[in-house]
C-alpha cells in the first residue's frame, strides 16, 4: 500500500449461528482512530503509515469452533 492511502482487508465468515468476527494486528494494536470494521467484516485502515505494516488476523468464532486467517500489509 502507498503511505497515506486507505486499505481494505476482507474477511468472509459464514455459519449458522453467524460467527462473531474480530480483527487484530499480530504485533501491536489496530491504528487508533484510523480504522473501522464494516458489516461485511472488512477492515478499513485510513491514512496508512509504515508503522501499520505487518500481519493482520481475522478470527471468526461460534459455538461450533474458531477459524482464523492472516494477511500481510506492506506500506
From TrEMBL:
Database matches in Pfam families: I-set
SUPFAM superfamilies attached to this UniProt entry: Immunoglobulin (SSF48726)
GO biological processes: homophilic cell adhesion via plasma membrane adhesion molecules; synapse organization
Any single GO CC term annotated in Swiss-Prot or TrEMBL for this entry: axon
Keywords carried by this UniProt record: Cell membrane, Disulfide bond, Glycoprotein, Immunoglobulin domain, Membrane, Repeat
GO molecular function: axon guidance receptor activity
Keyword Amino-acid biosynthesis: no
Protein's UniProt keywords contain Disulfide bond: yes
SMART domains xref list: IGc2
Main location: membrane
Compartments (UniProt record): Cell membrane
Alphabetized InterPro entries for the sequence: Cell_Adh-Cytoskel_Orgn, Ig-like_dom, Ig-like_dom_sf, Ig-like_fold, Ig_I-set, Ig_sub2
Residue ranges of domain Ig-like in the record: 1-75
Name this protein carries in UniProt: ROBO1 protein
Species this protein is from: Erpornis zantholeuca
Amino acid at each position: 500500500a502507498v503511505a497515506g492511502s486507505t486499505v481494505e482487508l476482507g474477511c468472509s465468515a459464514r455459519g449458522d449461528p453467524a460467527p462473531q468476527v474480530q480483527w487484530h494486528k499480530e504485533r501491536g494494536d489496530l491504528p487508533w482512530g484510523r480504522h473501522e470494521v464494516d458489516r461485511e467484516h472488512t477492515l478499513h485502515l485510513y491514512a496508512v503509515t509504515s508503522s501499520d505494516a505487518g500481519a493482520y488476523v481475522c478470527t471468526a468464532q461460534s459455538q461450533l469452533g474458531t477459524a482464523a486467517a492472516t494477511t500481510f500489509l506492506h506500506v
